[in-house]
Amino acid sequence: MKKTISICPPARSRGFGRPLRPALAAAALLAAAALAHAADADLARAKQLIADGKAPEAYALLEPLQASATGDAAFNELLGEAALMSGRAESARDAFRRALVAEPGRIEAHLGLGRAYAALGDYASAKIEFETVLRFDNLPPDLHQQVEIYARAAAQSARGQRLVSFGYLLAGVGNYSVNATRGTDAFGGNETDDNFVSFRAGGGLNYELENGYSLNGTLDYRFRDYDHEDPDAGNRRNDSDLRWNANVSRNIGNDNIAIGLRGRVSYRGDGNYRNDVGVFGNWRREIDADNQFSLGLEYRRRNYPSGPERARTRDIFEVNPGWSVALFDGKGGFSLTGALGHENALQGRADGDANFFGLSPSFSYSFSDTVGGFVFFWWQQERFSTARANLDADGNQISFGKRRDNLYEVGGGLTWEFAPTWTLNPEVLYIRDESNFLAPNYSSTEIWITLRKDF
The pTM is what? Predict the structure, then answer.
């Protein structure tokens, strides 16, 4: 029999490849590690360049790498900061957007995107983005001013500050007039035309904790001194008002949730005081760059500690849904807030408990980088529970039934930033209270101008 010799190349091939494959894998790992190390080195150098005020150099270092780092949130956040600080607002916007797609909960990416929108003049979108993270109360009604306050705080955060803040001082003069209504005509025609001087000061703090949490607080003090002298009391009237807010909030992706306490201590003239304190919760949802939804809940005590208004002391439960939208490429912003609630009378108020509901639309527009304007309307209807006599000034009964009031406010104003952080603000406010009862009918007009300094 002829002997056959079999040659098996696959076996020889396997034997040769066994040591080769681990070597190739090790080489690939080493190459990847080298690339990662190089990328980390580039990021570290870019951070240092930004800290040294050399943002254009940092952007030049990072920009060639962006195609391979689309899904890297930290890289795009750093690229966005470098772009923003070197005057490339559109590139910054796109980079911060990519960072939020990769990781929606990044606080600095939200704040950076807000700053990029502000630099592009898209103030309404900037406000929505800032409010996904920051909680500031008592802001001015003008959209541009609000965004500038938020942007300064966001810039503090970008510099690594956990505690960010804002503050303001205002001084002004104005005129307050009580208009003729069937109520004022019936009860003595007590129309007034008073000039006044005003002062206001306040500010807020936001301290960033871990995991998207932050502690927030605001204070706002307002004072008015009128030139009208009360012949009975022998002195001039003045009003003062202190408002405060303390809350804890959390950013979760495109949502921000806050729970806290807030209150108000007011002197209303003629020895009358009013104190408010309550617990509240608020949820904001950024639907997209142009739309935001909010929902607020509050339970508060409104207390009149002494005097003839003590019977007005009551507990109030209120629900406030809201919607904001950016218009005209972000130069304008429209918001609509609703109100639905119940008042529980605590001191035997003659009209009893009350249910109320209302709407408040507002619109703000930036005509230029230094001039803006705003208008707003507020309406609320109150329906009381107890039927009683409707009396004239002599105590005679006109009718009998349950009181129903419609309350209106219409106002507007302009802002002119004549120097950085300095503004002049002329404003007007018209108030009208209409009721099926005689006495509550009321109307006033206020016109004033203030000088404001932000810091």
Answer: 0.84
Q: What is the pLDDT of residue 24?
A: 54
Domain residue spans of the chain:
49-130, 146-454
d(CA 209, CA 163): 9
Q: Which residues contact 299 (CB under 8 A, 6 or more apart)?
A: 278, 279, 280, 315, 316, 317, 318
Q: How many CA atoms lie within 13 A of 369 on its CB side?
A: 7
* Helix (H) / strand (E) containing 261: strand 255-267
How does DSSP classify residue 179? P
Name 84's Cβ contacts closer than 8 Å, sequence gap at least 6: 55, 92, 112, 115, 116, 119
φ and ψ of 420, to 5 deg: -55, 125
Q: What is the pLDDT of residue 412?
A: 97
Q: What is the pLDDT of residue 40?
A: 66
Q: Taking the chain (455 residues) in consecutive chunks of 10 residues, what is each chunk's mean pLDDT? A: 40 46 51 47 82 88 86 92 94 95 91 96 96 91 92 92 95 94 75 88 95 95 83 64 96 95 88 92 96 98 89 96 96 97 93 97 95 97 97 91 98 96 97 95 96 95
Burial class for 217, CB neighbours closer than 10 Å (0-12, 13-18, 19+) = buried
Contact 426, 154 (CB under 8 A): no
Count H helices and E strands in the chain, helices first: 8, 14
Q: Looking at residue 348, what is its pLDDT?
A: 85
Cβ-contact 418, 370 below 8 angstroms: yes
Q: For residue 236, give every residue at least 6 positions away whose Cβ sits within 8 Å of its Cβ, in sequence order, or none.
A: 225, 226, 227, 228, 229, 230
Element of type H or E holding 12? helix 9-51
Burial letters 364-373, b for 16+ CB under 10 A, else e? bbbeeeebbb
Q: Which two tokens stand for residue 449?
A: 């101008």
Phi, psi of 161 (to 5 degrees): -80, 125
CATH topology of domain 49-130: 1.25.40
User: Closest Cα partner for 422 from 382, 448, 398, 453?
Assistant: 453
Looking at the structure, give the CATH architecture of the domain made up of residues 146-454.
Beta Barrel (2.40)
- Helices 73-85 and 89-102: crossing angle in degrees, nearest 10, is 160
Asked whether 415 and 145 are in contact (CB, 8 A), the reply is yes
- How many alpha carbons lie under 13 Å from residue 139 in its C-beta half-sphere? 19
Give bridge partners of residue 92 from the DSSP assignment. none
